[in-house]
Design brief:
By secondary structure, the chain is an alpha/beta fold. It contains 13 helices and ten strands. The protein has three domains: about 1-35; about 55-340, Periplasmic binding protein-like II (D-Maltodextrin-Binding Protein, domain 2); about 345-390, no CATH class. The model is unreliable at about 10-35 (pLDDT under 50).
Length: about 400
């Protein structure tokens, strides 16, 4: 073997030896570049944190079925959600639905719906399918009336003139689509019913096509106010009578619809009571507690909804108004009972000219300082000193 070849082999051996030394004395590339595994403890902690966050988010979240975007119920639902909001302690989700009539079905069967805005006459449709519906649904509040509003052209003078003509009742599931035909049946007026969106129906209003459109919602309807109606278009009168026993008398004025009602005139109509209802959850359940807290917050803050910026109908809401055929949610009834209870007697109720028996004084003091025995004794001593001084 020549000298050059020997030197080359020696060089290779030296490089190999140096490589072995470096590999033995340094950590591997995998150890340097790869992070330490998470391990079962860290993974379990991450899962637990996620579950806690999920539970926290859902604990006080309540689903409120409102209605279609163009109707008053969804606005009421949104305003209630805003006023009762309390961060993690109360979070209401207003839900866009097909309307107050189908909200009864949503309240009975749809997951995530705890409270709903319904029309009172819609319960009749479910009584054959759900005989105990009055026990499964309870009411929190009688919200507002949904007025019957029928717009027709100049050739239609009275609601009776619609007999045999095309009348649109909005899309299936809406209040108009349920209550409208029911009211016409009660009035004994047979019409050719159509169920298409009102914006499309109003474009087709003419003597040889759609003769009238029927709205059943809280007045005023923005779509009716905003539209530029041709001359002669007006709202039809529907006076209240005994055939309409499930409804309330109401009226429409120029202030409601300047383009459809002449100044100084009043158009008689009827209204469907609209109700804030809740599913009758068992009292110890999570869902019941959510409705309970929602009701308490709503009643405590109801005056805020009567301020400018909210729907004007809030000014007409009567907390004490009942709903025939339904029981009031217990928390709502308890709130009303407390609000209507006579005020507890105080020391200022004592007539200075009359000597007060010690037993009566004790009663007054217990009312002034309930559950505080030390405070009661202190007040009683003060009272006795005052009584002696007066004598």
């Amino acid at each position: 073997m020549g000298g050059g070849s020997l030197m080359r082999n020696f060089g290779k051996l030296a490089v190999m030896a140096l490589g072995l030394v470096l590999m033995a004395g340094a950590p591997s590339l995998a150890q340097v570049d790869s992070p330490a595994p998470r391990g079962p403890v860290r993974a379990k902690k991450a899962v637990t944190t996620t579950l806690q966050a999920k539970d926290k988010l859902n604990s006080w979240t309540l689903g409120l079925a409102g209605g279609l975007l163009e109707g008053a119920p969804i606005r009421f639902a949104t305003e209630m959600a805003r006023i009762v909001d309390d961060g993690e302690n109360m979070h209401v989700l207003p839900i866009v639905t097909r309307g107050p009539t189908e909200n009864v079905e949503d309240l009975l069967y749809l997951k995530g719906v705890d409270v709903a805005i319904i029309n009172s006459d819609s319960l009749e449709a479910f009584k054959t399918l759900v005989p105990d519906i009055n026990k499964r649904i309870t009411y929190i509040l009688n919200l507002f009336p949904s007025e019957l509003q029928i717009v027709a052209g100049p050739e239609i003078k009275t609601v009776q003139d619609l007999k045999g003509k095309k009348v649109n009742f909005n899309t299936p599931g809406t209040a108009a689509a349920y209550s409208g035909p029911l009211i016409f049946d009660k009035l004994g007026i047979e019409v050719e019913k159509t169920f298409i969106p009102h914006p499309a129906a109003m474009e087709r209003m003419k003597p040889d096509d759609i003769a009238a459109v029927v709205f059943v919602t809280s007045k005023p309807v923005e779509a009716l106010q905003r539209r530029n109606w041709p001359d002669g278009y007006h709202l039809l009168s529907v006076p209240y009578d005994d055939k309409l026993e499930y409804y309330l008398p109401s009226s429409l004025t120029n202030a409601d619809y300047p383009k459809l009602v002449k100044a100084g005139e009043t158009v008689d109509t009827i209204a469907v009571p609209t109700v804030l209802a809740a599913f009758n959850w068992p009292t110890r359940t999570d869902r019941y507690k959510r409705v309970e807290r929602f009701t308490q917050y709503l009643f405590d803050r109801i005056d805020n909804l009567r301020k400018p910026g909210f729907h004007p109908k809030w000014a007409d809401v009567n907390l004490s108004a009942s709903v025939p055929g339904l029981s009031r949610f217990p928390t709502a009834q308890a709130w009303l009972d407390k609000a209507n209870a006579p005020a507890a007697p105080t020391m200022s109720d004592i007539d200075p000219g009359v000597e007060v028996p010690a037993a009566r004084a004790r009663e007054l003091i217990r009312s002034a300082a309930p559950n505080d025995r030390a405070k009661q004794e202190e007040l009683f001593r003060t009272f006795m000193q005052w009584q002696r001084g007066r004598q």
